[in-house]
Automatic annotation (TrEMBL), chains A, B:
<dbReference type="Pfam" id="PF02401">
    <property type="entry name" value="LYTB"/>
</dbReference>
<keyword id="KW-0411">Iron-sulfur</keyword>
<dbReference type="GO" id="GO:0050992">
    <property type="term" value="P:dimethylallyl diphosphate biosynthetic process"/>
</dbReference>
<keyword id="KW-0408">Iron</keyword>
<dbReference type="GO" id="GO:0046872">
    <property type="term" value="F:metal ion binding"/>
</dbReference>
<dbReference type="GO" id="GO:0051745">
    <property type="term" value="F:4-hydroxy-3-methylbut-2-enyl diphosphate reductase activity"/>
</dbReference>
<dbReference type="InterPro" id="IPR003451">
    <property type="entry name" value="LytB/IspH"/>
</dbReference>
<dbReference type="GO" id="GO:0019288">
    <property type="term" value="P:isopentenyl diphosphate biosynthetic process, methylerythritol 4-phosphate pathway"/>
</dbReference>
<keyword id="KW-0479">Metal-binding</keyword>
<keyword id="KW-0004">4Fe-4S</keyword>
<protein>
    <recommendedName>
        <fullName>4-hydroxy-3-methylbut-2-enyl diphosphate reductase</fullName>
    </recommendedName>
</protein>
<dbReference type="GO" id="GO:0051539">
    <property type="term" value="F:4 iron, 4 sulfur cluster binding"/>
</dbReference>
Amino acid sequence: SPELEAEIKARHIDIIDTTCPFVHRAQVTARRLAQSGFFVVVYGDADHPEVKSVLGWADGNGVATLDEKFVANFDRLPHRLGILSQTTQIPAHFTEFAKKLIDFAFTMDSELRVIDTICHDIRKRQAAALEMAGRADLMFVIGGRTSANTHRLAELCSAVTETYLIETADEIHPPWLQGRRYIGITSGASTAEQTISEVLMKLEALT
Amino acid sequence: SPELEAEIKARHIDIIDTTCPFVHRAQVTARRLAQSGFFVVVYGDADHPEVKSVLGWADGNGVATLDEKFVANFDRLPHRLGILSQTTQIPAHFTEFAKKLIDFAFTMDSELRVIDTICHDIRKRQAAALEMAGRADLMFVIGGRTSANTHRLAELCSAVTETYLIETADEIHPPWLQGRRYIGITSGASTAEQTISEVLMKLEALT
């Protein structure tokens, strides 16, 4: 959040900002909308850390929700409404949400801004992982157990083939690999290259 | 158009700007969008003088159409799209148009602005005229024969009761009034008060 950033700067602490550039884009978009007098609606889970952070940049002038009725039920609908998305939402779901908000919230003298803040890299990664899962008889998804996008990848792949979510190479049980001909690997958006290399080496050693 | 305005100013001709404030708002909106790098889509009949004028303020960076497919069929869809409306369009039709454009034109990194430039006075006037026509056994719509909103009023009323579009009091034929108990009067958005008074006096004299 901007408050945290300011505090860190005030204490002269050196930081390395590891915020994903797409999340940063969503944050900047929220701030730009709020500063232009728009009420910011973030399409996403209000409890998700990224969503909380993006909303923080709207300086209190916004909400996060996955349900368009939440906005429709306001006592007074804002005339200026800016709609953006958590970076990991599905594009088609976001546009449906935006269209429903037009039905609910676009009235006399309204101005509505809809801005794509979705990370299409993640969408591509999901599509590629699904395609790979379709050909594999075992999938490994490498990433944090608390990462939403890693979980989503594992969820998608497990619908297609047997899938394990692992955080490190150590978690691979050799018996899993018996009789497998094609093993697929994918990883979450923030998984370190080092971790992926270790998994690859372990698999090479075991097969 | 801005060009015409500039030429008039260059020749030091005194002008009285009689542009309707709602049309002016649409013009300014088109200019603001174009200057911010948005491709302007005006929802309206491309041949209508108002629509041509509004588009003129977009400085060549826009189109006017009533058909969302016209925009969808572009070779390259603009990423930044500003959607506004001719002031006399029906609000529900405009929002349907905007929603279809979201389907067609909202893609990766898109920013879409939808701005209400409809004159809701005209909508109220139409609703009031329709209500009156429902109670009247004769309606007069006073306004120019070349005015789109006057024609629209006459069209709406004639579906409900016998209706005459007149430009001046002189056009009233006394036989029209025989046996009428309730005569309704409405007028186009730009009809002079004087003309309306003359019609009222003529009707009082004849009934």
